[in-house]
Input
Amino acid sequence: MPRINTLTIETAPEASKPVLEGVNQKLGKVPNLFATLAHSPAALQTYFNIKDALAKGSLGDKLSESIAIAIATKASCQYCANAHYTIGGMVGVNEDERSKNLQGKSNDPKTQAAIDFAFAIIEKRGFVDDSDLSSFKDAGFTDADVLEVLSIVILNTFTNYANHIAETVPDFPEIPESALA
Output
């Protein structure tokens, strides 16, 4: 049972309604995370402001989703793991790669460097070492990419923690057993 109940478009605060209506038009439903964040129009808008900004970034959906899957697992957020595993498949991350991402791993060295850097940010609370930065940049990333991965970490930490606090009821398909092996 959630600790913060979901809202509907009708029961949401006025400032949250247009955002939820847009989500519903785009996805055909309002995922429980957004229906929970809707209690605070500021929190709901925070999510979409960061997500919209990242959509204009250089790292792309596939890499962002691989990082998000790994972060969700690291944060023990089942809601986000289910969501990003599903979304990762929708943006073209194959099942084997998504399964590896659940373990903080990747088949691609560049993606692995990004996941490792994201984990360094989380584990070291932003106080990454010179070696963390150089390993990331040696994989072909730029200073701009450093800050974009930081933004991905911030967004995913926000949603992971929101789900932990709210105990959001999962509404994405569960990760298949085969992916957990």
Notes: DSSP finds ten helices and no strands in the chain.
